[in-house]
Each structure stands twice: as structure tokens, then as C-alpha cells.
Amino acid sequence: MPGIESKLFDEIKVGDTASVQRTMLARDMQAWASAFGDGFVPVREGAALDSAGIVTAVLCTLVNSALPGPGSSICSTAVQIQVALPIDSPLTVRLVVQKKCADTGLITLTGECLDVKGKAVATAVLEVRAAATRKQCLMPEHRLENLVEQCRGLKPILTGVVHPCSTEALVGAVEASDAGLIVPVLFGPEAKLRQLAEAAMLDLSKCRIVTTANAEESAFRAAMAAGNNEIQALMKGSLHSDVFLHAVMQKESKLRTGRLLSHCVLLSVPSYARRVVLTDAALNIAPDTDQKRDICQNAIGFAIALGIRLPKVAVLAAIELVNTKMPASLDGAILAKMAERRQIVGGIVDGPLDLDAAVDTEAARIKNIVSPVAGSADVLLAPNIEAANMIYKDLGFMADAQSAALVVGARVPIILTSRADSAASRLYSAAAAVLYANALVCDAANILPDPAE
Questions:
Q1: pTM (2 decimals)?
Q2: Spatial distance between the Cα atoms of 33 and 35, rounded to a whole number of angstroms
């Protein structure tokens, strides 16, 4: 399990730095206000009203996570707000060691928050004391930062980033490159990409750019490059999913494998200490039973690639009993029997199960459900796209879930994030793509088994 280790006083030098990039969302401001204010933070024209408290919290988090790290104590802070905090725009938070006092053990740090143009939004001075003994903060195994750690030692994959014509999309691609996950090939209008990079202070020197005129051309040329084995993965930028996937589905792109493509998203919710895969929240609108079989098989392969050896699949319905008037309950029973007959392989499948019984052992016990999946599902197979999408968005926007999303079933992993997703989500999705691509090479028979007859 990876962790964060503290730096001791003697190890810290004047000039040492730590930085992190954050994007403040309107909902973050509302959450802050609900916890510490009056429950309402006015937001105007893309900016929140000045808040020294929010800046202080972000800087103190960086102190405790990086410089000096776990076990630090913050003795004083002085924050000055220069302009209103930007909303929905990346903010770079930076700490620099200015001086050390051996007599008191105090370290003076200067802090700053910079917008995408490098202009100071806020400045600060903090006095901190490093931990007296080395301390380590372990990261919970279910958090998606561990996906990036799982990729250590694996080669970065050549990835076509399709029309990343927004700051968030471009930041996601560059951060995935900086993390050693991908080697980006950017498909889009070069002038626009360089303009965005300059505004966000992003280095595109490690990126190859394939100039295109519009989103449709970006998608088509990237799909063709993947089909011709020129790139190993595709990453959606700021274009619409329909445009992106239309190019993937074309016969001339040579990306189809003869099986259904489906969407899988790995979710980590702070209040639920297990990762869970949700499918299908983005592609298949109202899948029939045969299509759900393929969706189930794809999700099992996705889960295996990400390290779940024997995935447990819950086929969701509103109830845990078969009701002939409720098609989702029939699908659950049929898919469970198909798994018994090895028409679905590599995992344990049971259904129908309602959501509470699928994820909560106590709920399953109270309902007297005897199942190898109930209470410990690794995969949630939703009845239709509406149900899956609502679970996905609910957990992301209301429960602060981390997510990593791929379209699977094609010859290459396809990183499909929402245009509203954060750069962190794009980073975790890139890590999932690396693991999936590596698993396809090493164990294709388990990741994409031949469709059962």
C-alpha cells in the first residue's frame, strides 16, 4: 500500500518546494459553506467571492501531505486574497521554504495560489513545525491514487488524445504524461491547442500534434491510427461522445472485435471502503439479455485487468426476487444461470439483487438473501443506461467519488470521460487504460474471452 512520508527538520532545505493543482468547483464552495459558513456561497461570472478560509485549508493540506508532510503542526498562517477564487478553472497551489530556525524548530513557508495565466490569486506565509520522528500516512487501498502506483514499472502507452480543446482535457493528457502513464499524440487544431497550453502554462514538448480542422476529423484520424496499430489507446478530449464513438465504430477503423462495446467505470467512494465497477453508464441504452451478457463479460475482464482476481457481479434490479413483470429481475436470474453454464466466465454472477443487498452485508442478512455476491459485489450491472448514469453522477457529484472510466470490448482501451470530469478522473482513467492494455497483451483470453455461444 503506497503512502506519504514526512520530511524531518534537518532534511528540509531553504528553497524546497511542493505544489499541487486543484480545480475549485461550485459544489466545493457550497460544501465548504455548509460545513463552516452559512450554507451559501455566492458565485458570480465564474468566480467565487473571496475566501481566505478555503485558501488556508488548501495550503494546510499541502503542508500535511507534502512539505513537511504527515505529523506537521501548523503554528500560524497569514493569507492575503488578491482576487476572487476562480471557479471551474485549474488553480496551482505552491509552497516554498523561506527560512528555518534551529532554536525554535520552526520552518517559514511562503504560499501562493496561481490561476491558469500564472497570476497570483492569493499569497500566504505559514510557520510550521516538522514531525519530531518520521511518520507515514498510508493511503487506503480502495482509493484510485493506487491505480497510478499499480502502473509503476509498466511502459507508458502511446495514446491518441482526441480533440483536447479545453483546459481540463489538455491538463488531463499532460498530467498523465508527466505521471509516466501515456505518451500523448494530440489530434486537434494545433493553434488552439498551443493557445490553451500557453494560457495554462503546460509543456507540450513531449506531445506530438496531429493537426485537424474539427472534432469529426480528430476522431476519425485518431481511430484510424489506433486501428493501424500506430497508437495503443484512445482518450476522449472535449468533443461529444457521439462524435468520438462514431469514428471508433466505423468498419474502416478496424477497432471492432466482433463483440459489444460497453462502458465500465471504476468508482471509489470515501464512505465505502471498497472499489466497485459500474456498467453501463454511457453506451448501451436499453440492453437486452444477450447484450447484458456481453456487458457482464466485458466488465469481468475490466475488473480482472485492474487487479480483482475473481470479480463478483451483481445484476441489479429493484428487488431481489424474480418477478415476471419486471424484466430486470428476469435478466438477473438468466445471467446468473448463464454463468453457471459457463456462457459467462471469469467471475461469479448473481441476480437479481437490489442495490443495498449487493453492497451491504447487513442489508443482505436482514433480507435473508443467501448469495456469494450479496454484500460484496465488485461489479454492479445496471438494468439500463438511465439507472447506471444516475448512480455514476450521484456518487460523483454528491458523494465525491473518484472515477476511472473506459470503453472496453474494442482492440484498444478507450478512455471515455465526461466533458465535466476533472483532470484527476482523466489521470485515473489513463492508469486504468495502461493496466487494461497490459492485461490484453499478457492475458487476452481472460480479458476478452471468445463470445460464448
A1: 0.77
A2: 5
